[in-house]
UniProtKB/TrEMBL annotation, chain A:
It comes from Denitromonas ohlonensis. This is DUF4386 domain-containing protein. The keyword Cytoplasm does not apply. The chain crosses the membrane at residues 21-43, 63-87, 99-120, 140-164, 176-197, 203-229. Keywords: Membrane, Transmembrane, Transmembrane helix.
Length: 241, 169
């Protein structure tokens, strides 16, 4: 598509979207890993309600500041997803998949923002809430994050499909990107098991249901950002549409 | 390749469980019917064999032979799913569920995730089969066929390890 080459604003927009994704990763690491105690999990699904309150009260200030960072991080999913949709749109003659991607982007952003809302509410007044409510807020946050497989998995599928179905040379991204996205879906999938277990590797503090989906998700963002930057790199061969 | 890494984590988890609760794992394992597992392994290996022949036929430009072999591969996969359903049904009616103990938790969840892969693999094989039915098999069709076949072999490979860890060890 020759006009993309002659459209410096489009290139800058995509660079902005890709950096939004990268910033989301950094902000999550600050807010969720260092301050918020989301990953590695400070709380455990099988702790007693009193234990939840005790742990949360001990780290009240860090978790509050962490929640602000989480909010910032998750809000950036919007531009990140829109950038992928814009690049997909460029390769489509009549748009369809790019629209579906936008729907999933909006849905995923909203679900992720609710994770931050819930995490913040959990530390708003843990001493006044009934301890089981603090427990429920933690459950709620992790359920939003890892039980939402069809939302985030569906997003990956509609990124992969236009690549695989495109005619030769007209795909929005290289083929391996499609396979990465389909693989990501399989990695998110164990998150659905958190409903059935309160202890062990399949509970929301376990390796299979928490660590694998979370790490996969942020690696996925990292890969997609790199791919977006590459797609609009000056001098990179612009895909014909 | 990515899936191999994730399943490696699963395999390590089973190994840790085995080490920590050796008696429980051995007792629970004795309740599994090894021959059901053997039969499923046989089905998947046969399926992979058909798929491999199908790919070779397509490479040689014999599309009819290719499609027939992929159909046989799909039938093996469907047999696997049916056999798994019977096995799970039997276990559940015996009162064994993922909540019974750690061994059955691993058994149901990991064979369940693998079953999900088999189902995805069956869809992939249908795509492969339809690609092999095209009048001319070009580079593009051959790429679809080969990538799909590789995924099916992966599903097979994962089962072989899972079978050894859950049924045989």
């Amino acid at each position: 598509m020759s006009e993309a080459k002659a459209d410096p604003l489009f290139r800058k927009s995509i660079v902005f979207c890709a950096w939004s994704g990268l910033a989301a990763i950094v902000l999550f690491i600050i807010g969720g890993v260092f301050l918020g105690g989301m990953l590695p999990p400070l709380l455990h699904a099988n702790d007693s309600p009193a234990e939840f309150v005790r742990k949360v009260s001990e780290h009240l200030f860090e978790i509050r500041v962490g929640s602000v960072f989480l909010m910032l991080s998750f809000a950036l999913f919007g531009p990140f997803g829109a950038g992928i949709a814009a690049l997909t749109r460029r390769a489509e003659t009549s748009p369809a998949f790019s629209y579906v991607q936008l729907v999933f982007t909006a849905c995923g952003t909203m679900v992720a923002l609710l994770v931050a809302f819930t995490w913040a509410l959990m530390v708003f007044r843990p001493d006044e809430y009934d301890p089981t409510l603090v427990q429920m807020f933690a459950d709620f946050a992790y359920f939003l994050a890892v039980f939402s497989v069809p939302c985030f998995g569906g997003w990956c599928v509609v990124i992969a499909l236009p690549i695989l179905l495109a005619e030769e040379g007209k795909a929005p991204f290289p083929r391996w990107v499609a396979y990465v996205n389909l693989w990501a879906v399989l990695l998110f999938a164990p998150g659905q098991m958190v409903l059935f277990f309160k202890d062990g590797p399949f509970s929301w503090h376990g390796i299979v249901a928490l660590w694998i989906p979370f790490v996969a998700f942020f690696l996925w963002i990292l890969i997609m950002c790199a791919v977006m930057l590459k797609a609009v790199k000056p001098g990179a061969q612009v895909r014909p549409a | 390749m990515g899936d191999l890494m994730v399943f490696s984590v699963f395999f390590i988890l089973i190994a840790i469980g085995q080490k920590e609760h050796a008696a429980l794992f051995n007792a629970s394992r004795a309740q599994l019917d090894m021959w059901v597992g053997v039969f499923n392994t046989f089905l998947l290996l046969t399926g992979s064999w058909f798929v491999a022949i199908g790919v070779a036929r397509c490479r040689a430009g014999l599309s009819a032979g290719g499609a027939r072999n992929f159909t046989l591969g799909i039938l093996c996969g469907v047999g696997f799913v049916a056999n798994k359903a019977v096995e799970w049904g039997g276990k559940i009616s015996d009162g064994l569920s993922p909540a019974t103990n750690d061994f059955y938790m691993f058994f149901f969840v990991f064979t369940g995730i693998h079953l999900l892969h088999v189902l995805v693999g069956l869809v992939v094989l249908f795509v492969v089969r339809s690609a092999s039915c095209r009048p001319t098999i070009g580079v593009r069709e051959l790429r679809t066929i080969e990538s799909g076949a590789v995924f099916w072999h992966l599903v097979d490979l994962l089962w072989v390890v899972l079978f050894a860890l859950l049924y045989l060890l």
